[in-house]
Each structure stands twice: as C-alpha cells, then as structure tokens.
Write a structure and sequence with these properties.
It is built from 6 helices and 9 strands. It has helices at 15-28, 45-50, 109-115, 136-147, 195-210, 223-233, and strands at 125-126, 132-133, 152-156, 161-163, 166-175, 178-188, 234-240, 246-252, 263-264. The strands form 3 sheets. Strands 3, 4, 5 and 6 form a 4-stranded antiparallel sheet that branches. A 3-stranded antiparallel sheet has the order 8-7-9. Helix 3 (109-115) runs antiparallel to helix 4. The chain starts with 14 loop residues before the first helix and ends with a strand.
Length: 265
C-alpha cells in the first residue's frame, strides 16, 4: 500500500515541480511488473489448415474446359405463303323486298307441261273433315322434274310470326332466278316445344299456295273436281271420339278403318 508523502511546498515554489516529485516517489514504491508471456491457443486441424499460407497449400486441380457449343443449325428458308383463293363476289337479289323477274319471261314448254300435268287421283289424300290435298313432297317432286334440283327455291320475306297457337311466315317461290309467287304459310301448334316443327310446316304450306300460280295441282282448288273425286274415291263413315260422342268423318275408300283420334264404328 502506498503511503501518501506530503512535501511541503513553499508558497513561492512552482506547482508543476511539486507534482513531478509526488509522481516519482509513487512509482518508486510500485511492485515490479512480471515479464510478458504470449498466450498460445490449440487450434483444430481444420482451422489450422484454413490459416495455411497460400504458398504451402496445394494448388487446386484445374477445372475442365467447357465443351465447345454445337453450332446452331442455319435457319430454314421461309416457305412462301400460300396464296388465298380469291372468291368471286356473289351477286344476288334481296328476295325479302325484290320482285325481280316477275312475269318477265315464259318458262319453256317442257317445264310448263310438267307443271300443269293432271295429277294422279291415287296421289290425293283425304282428311277426316273432307278436305282433299296433295302431300307436300309431291309438290317438290313436280318442281324438281320441271326445273331440276337447285333450279328453284323458297326465300323468306318476313320473320317468323308467332301468335297464340299459330305460326306464320311469308315466302317467295323463286324459279330459275325469277320471282314466281308469294304466299304466307301457317300452322297451328299446341305447345312451345312444337314451334320449330310448326315453322317447318308453315314453309310447306306456303309452297303449296305458291304452286297455284304455276298451275301445279290446280284441280284441288276446283269445287267441281273436289265433289267428283270424293264421290268416286272417298266415303263418309260414323265414328266416335275419345269422349264417346258420335260424328261423321271422311276417308278414302281403299284406306283401312279410322282408329285414332276418331274410331270408326
């Protein structure tokens, strides 16, 4: 332990000299400092190897040189684009409004003979209410014989009109590129699901009406012919409906008895 040493300093002595005297006296009484010994550390092998100088470390194996890239194939020559065929512009009439060719020229004698030929009585059908008619398909066969398939057609002139239980539409009959006749076809229907079928039936009905102007099956519009045909080929019979009510109905003489919806008694 150091003991304080008091040195009397005169009022006239410098303060710095007194401080040096005290510092020298205190250092003289300190114990001697032990000799410096550097510390040693036991480093692991991995750590020691990590601190190995670059000169003593083995040189790393050279990495293999990258293989030369295969030359890219030369781009194929672009094939010339195929030329799109130029379609001719179709020129035609707007048959929803046009009357082109109406009564402008007579049909050939050969076509007229086919159109106005008398119909075979065996082709005529009879409905239970006594109305006689020619099936729609036979009108088409007559037109095909007169003008050939593709030589005639029906062009709609209006949209389909759907009323309560009735579908109708106006059509134009075009033969050899000329307007021949215009008629509105109609057909009854009982349910909304039957509208497509009724629309097709209305088209057939319009065809029958248009063919009147060409003289096809014109006998069916002649009251005298109708009476003669019914007297010779048809018969009126008694029938019962589903409620048991009796009524008269017509059928061809060579047809079997009526069964539905009227049952012949």
């Amino acid at each position: 332990m150091l003991r304080p040493i008091f040195t009397r300093v005169s009022h006239g002595a410098p303060v710095a000299a007194a401080r040096r005297s005290i510092s020298t006296t205190a250092v003289a009484h300190l114990p001697p400092r032990p000799a410096y010994q550097p510390r040693t550390y036991n480093k692991p092998a991995a750590t020691a190897a990590a601190f190995t100088s670059p000169a003593s470390a083995a040189a790393p194996a050279p990495s293999p040189a990258p293989a030369p890239a295969a030359p890219s194939p030369a781009p194929a020559a672009a094939e010339p684009a195929a030329e799109e065929p130029v379609l001719p512009e179709l020129e035609g009439e707007d048959w929803s409004r046009s009357y082109a060719g109406l009564s402008s020229k007579r049909f050939s004698k050969e076509a007229a003979d086919v159109l106005m030929a008398p119909i075979d009585p065996e082709d005529i059908e009879c409905k239970p209410d006594g109305l006689i008619y020619l099936p729609e398909i036979k009108y088409r066969r007559i037109l095909n014989r007169a003008f050939g398939p593709g030589g005639w057609g029906l062009a709609p002139r209006t949209n389909v009109q759907i009323d309560k239980n009735v579908v109708s539409r106006e059509y134009a009959l075009i033969c050899e590129g000329r307007l021949v006749s215009i008629a509105r076809g109609e057909q009854d229907y009982f349910d909304a699901s039957g509208i497509p079928t009724a629309t097709e039936a209305a088209k057939s009905n319009a065809l029958l009406r248009c063919c009147k102007d060409l003289g096809v099956a014109s006998e069916l519009w002649d009251p005298r012919f109708i009476r003669k045909w019914k007297a010779k080929y048809a018969v009126e019979v008694w029938c019962e409906d589903r409620t048991g009510k009796k009524k008269k109905a017509w059928r061809r003489k060579d047809d079997p008895k009526l069964t539905y919806p009227l049952k012949e008694t």
